[in-house]
Amino acid sequence: MTTTTAEKSGRRPVRAGLLLVLAGLGAVIALRGRLPDPGETLAVLGAVDGWWAAAAVVAALGSQLAFADQQRRLLAGFGVRVPAGRVIAMTLGRSAMSMTLPAGSAVSAAFAFRIYRRYGAATSVAVTVTAVSGLLSMVALALLYLAGWLVSTPAAVPWAILGAAAVLPLLFWGRGLLAKVPRQVWTGGLGAAVVNWALDMFCLVAAAAACQVTLGWWELALIYLAVQVVRQVPLTPGGVGLIEASMLAGLIAAGMPEVTAAAVVLLYRLVSFWMILPMGLAGWLAIRDRKPEVRTEA
């Protein structure tokens, strides 16, 4: 018996829902025994500052919009015009995929490639945009690391120079790709990538402020950057469990009480991870079978 396309499409939301459940179970298992008393943690969460919590939500959403803007700019550089709403839906879908699926980054990139092609991008253009988007994201994160070293420790200037030298191979590798895109397009894309990371970082700072933490914002930024090293190692989908454990350890090591640190981590991940997943599922459902309005320019 053959399975129709409609039947396959009907199963996809069910599979996506199961992945959300599995991600939640993975987080529970990975963090079992590492969190303080749940009652005390919930008490801290119950007393959060609403304005700062709202700022964390806005920052998380803004981060997604910045990523969408990066892709929109790169596509427009090749004359491929995709409606803003579709780009946002694709971005949310990509984020959910990278957060929940094994090899999520690769699956996310493949999904984006298909959407690019659907909206009129030639194969070479879709490949270039996918590669440049990933390259700019890595360079933007590297720039944040360099800024962190320079601001936190003036004596780190030599190390910052070494860090800059480490980025040069990426730029050399991407030189051929970037040459195909107008300068203002890829510089705007890099700016959007920096904003993407910076807003995600601010989401953590806002979550800490919502829990009335007195730890300096710069210390929180350094902890965030340190956790990104763990985040780039795909041991679990979306770094579930590993990110929470690493961030919790970093906050406690910086002098934050365990209960407060747990509340900060939970609030940050609720906003930047769990809130995005259902939105990503909705975005994927909205764009997966939608007939495109192809608009290209010469």
From TrEMBL:
Q: Tell me the compartments it is located in.
A: Cell membrane
Q: Which PANTHER family match?
A: UPF0104 MEMBRANE PROTEIN MJ1595
Q: Which GO terms describe its cellular component?
A: plasma membrane
Transmembrane parts of this sequence = 42-62, 125-150, 156-178, 190-215, 235-254, 266-287
Q: What is this protein called?
A: Lysylphosphatidylglycerol synthase TM region
> Topology versus the membrane, per the UniProt entry?
Multi-pass membrane protein
Which superkingdom?
Answer: Bacteria
The record's Pfam families line, in alphabetical order, gives: LPG_synthase_TM
Q: Which UniProt keywords apply?
A: Cell membrane, Membrane, Transmembrane, Transmembrane helix
Asked whether the keyword Membrane is assigned, the reply is yes
Source species of the chain = Actinoplanes derwentensis
Q: Tell me if Nucleotidyltransferase is a UniProt keyword of this record.
A: no
